Amino acid sequence: MELSAPSSSPSKKQKKVVVFDYGFGNVRSAERALARAGADVEITRDYDKALNADGLLVPGVGAFASCMKGLREARGDWIVDRRLSGGRPVMGICVGMQILFARGIEHGVESEGLDEWPGSVEPLQAEIVPHMGWNTVEAAAGSQLFAGLDADARFYFVHSYAVHDWSLETHNPAMEAPKVTWSTHGKPFVAAVENGALWATQFHPEKSGDAGAQLLTNWIGTL
Question: What residues make up the catalytic site (predicted)?
Fold first, then answer.
């Protein structure tokens, strides 16, 4: 699949995206991928810039507890909460997705997450761990994030933990139910979520070639 170049029309203003730099993420790779997808990107942990950008991307690598500690020290928990309270888009990737859940359990130790979604991040249930390499996903019906992508599109994963059960539902007909995308490594796990202003992927779109670039283009198009 070839990714079309972003429009160069001078009348179309680029969307401002902040890659939140709290010490736990591939920020340079994310910056390059977002720029390729047409965004005006800045890597920063500045509170006001992160709060006021059109989109905020929260990366994450390493241990759940360490990422949460770094995020809190950089006031990232406050930024994510305030942005979502105002309906302003946030996207998490890899551990940046995992910390959006209520808790993470690593080596038997439970750590609190941001609790934007209920559920636990737990060890993968597979013969081979970590799950490292390319894999397909089962995109949610009506997904905007995976729009324009083939059903057999592959994305790059590097992780040893995941969410295996999704429990958040909505019974209010005025509210759109979250769109949950799944992948399988041993047991099925949550690979991506679209929930109002909050989107996230377990895989690395910035390492997923043209498929990842199209996915980021789709996100930027909603900002």
Answer: 94 (nucleophile), 204, 206
